[in-house]
Here is the input.
Amino acid sequence: MIVRKTRSELEKMRRSGLLVHDILQALGGMVAEGVTTWDMEVAAVKMMEDAGAKPAFKNYFVPAAGERYRYVLCTSVNEEIVHGMPNPKRVLKAGDIVSIDTGVSLDGYFGDSAITVGVGELSEEAKKLLKVTEESLELAIDKVREGNRLFDICGTVENYVVRNGFSIVREYVGHGIGTQLHEEPQVPNYVDRRNENPRLREGMVLAIEPMVNAGKPDAKVLRDKWTAVTKDGSYSAHFEHCVAITPEGPWVLTRP
Here is the structure.
């Protein structure tokens, strides 16, 4: 069941979303040669504690992994698509890209967002990958309007990414969000005709998160049971925003 939010509920989600935005901006500013993904984890924990927020990811149980996640961030470097785990031994170097994905709960409502940041000078392909992935998200956000359908969002991401020579990860998708981190509907980054195609209605909130590979779309999970990587070792980028459907149009809850 898709849960539609009232204006007061959206305002609460907005608070969570803006906190996630501030955390990601601070972490993005930390990214540099010699920084570890654990450095970012430590900083994020402090920011959440200072704000009185609960981390959305830590202790989240995922049946496929068979255990609870242990960190407040997912930090996925280069060929890692999603769910990379912060590690004091993972030192960033020039040419790397790192996806930083996090979420919080404030007053019982969740915010969830992700950015991908480059370290130093990137290859032309990596620069294009980040640009196209982020642009695909912005184009999708413009489709979050009452009366459109879910496939309008999914198809917009897919068409733009493929037209620019990259591929869509199919195993991982966006989602509804509210009092739960993951709610209905699922929001794939491609048109999956096996799924329902609900009409978008006022009060729905969608976490849209393109995950785009420079090479082929195929993914696999490492032996740690969490980290998803590209099978061909190509770079992968990830951006995410939570977007509410309002009479005035799309309302991105995870940025000012």
Remarks:
- The two ends are 29 Å apart (CA to CA).
- The helical segments are 7-30, 37-51, 124-141, 150-163.
- The chain is about 30% helix and 25% strand.
- Residues 236 and 246 are 32 Å apart (CA to CA).
